[in-house]
Amino acid sequence: MTGYLPWDKTWHSQITYLPWVQPELPGMEQSPVLPAYPIFISSLKSGMSSQEFFAAVASTMVFLLGHEPESPLNPQYCAWLNVYNEELASQLFYEGTEMAAQYNLPQAIWMLQASLLLAPAAHESHFNLALAFNQLATQLQREEKYREAGDCYNQAQQYFNNASQLEGVEFIGGKKNDGYDSSLHREW
Fold it and tell me: What global pTM score does this model have?
């Protein structure tokens, strides 16, 4: 789902891509072939062990999943990450939920989005992502950023709908709009 995200794209320049090699880690024999490995430039250091290298690659992939949820590479990253760490979706869900509880909404949103991509049928991730977008919308509305708030409310509604379809529960919510909601605009 495309919509407002609470960060800019300046982080792109901090990532580089390295040629693919088969991971020499236990259990990774079945990992999919990737076009290249994304890695934060700051993570690269000489003398890295194979384990350190792939841990840095995995954390970069997770960051990319959360920050660019509609990237065409995400299905490959998800397949690789699910082989690398079967518990990663749960870890991201719990960490993202904790960030939302602390009102660190940008961090919560990207972690929950990554969790959702790794385990798309987890209704809890959809629900908590909806709550995080709803909190962000409320915050943006207080800051008089009405278009962004409307977009976040729409995203929250979509994630609530997804959660209800996965769980079999109906949510009664506001009507969907396609961007700007004039009812959110106040004249001063």
Answer: 0.78
